[in-house]
Amino acid sequence: MKLLVINGPNLNLLGGREPNIYGSETYSDLISGLKAYAQKMGAELDAFQSNHEGQLIDCLHNAIGVYDGIIMNPGAYTHYSYALRDAVLAAGLPVIEVHISNVHKREAFRHVSVTAPACIGQITGLGTQGYYLAVDYFIRTLKKP
Ligand code: DQA
């Protein structure tokens, strides 16, 4: 099973960026932790991060036929990128949307996700554990008997 983690704008700065909201774990710690966890669970996990909408869209297109599931934190694009939402639908792959912070407890503009309706589900507010829970979901639902 091959999983892909896609992180959008500003998530490369995890650890240093507003640590009161996003915690102190760095982006590279998160990705190495996820890779090790996926491997332990018998899956392969790749990661991609970009601050550019078009690159995130290209990444979703390039995932077609390669990955079994995608875990995506679109950052602020969540709240307004119809292009990213369309790319999720176009890719036709199961995508779980993850947010580190509880977007519903924050500013009103963060309460709306235009991308979530294109995803199978959303995990929000559980810190970086949300990414691990999404890996677990794919392991449990996609694992071949
Ligand atoms: C975020 C929440 C978004 O509103 C914000 O723009 C981010 C991070 C989160 O993981 O909590 O960049 O997606």
Give a short summary of the structure.
Helix content is 36%, strand content 18%. It has 145 residues and is an alpha/beta fold.
SSE layout:
Elements lengths: L1 E6 L11 H4 L4 H14 L3 E6 L3 H10 L6 E5 L8 H10 L3 E5 L21 E4 L4 H14 L3
Parallel strand pairs: 1-2, 1-3, 3-4, 4-5
1,3,4-trihydroxy-5-OXO-cyclohexanecarboxylic acid (DQA) binds next to loops.
3D structure, described in words:
The chain has 145 residues and is an alpha/beta fold. The protein has one domain: Rossmann fold (3-Layer(aba) Sandwich), CATH 3.40.50. The chain has five helices and five strands, in the order E-H-H-E-H-E-H-E-E-H. It has a five-stranded parallel beta sheet with strand order 2-1-3-4-5, with helices on one face. Strand 3, helix 4 and strand 4 form a beta-alpha-beta unit. Helix 3 runs parallel beside helix 4. The two termini are 12 Å apart. 1,3,4-trihydroxy-5-OXO-cyclohexanecarboxylic acid binds next to loops.
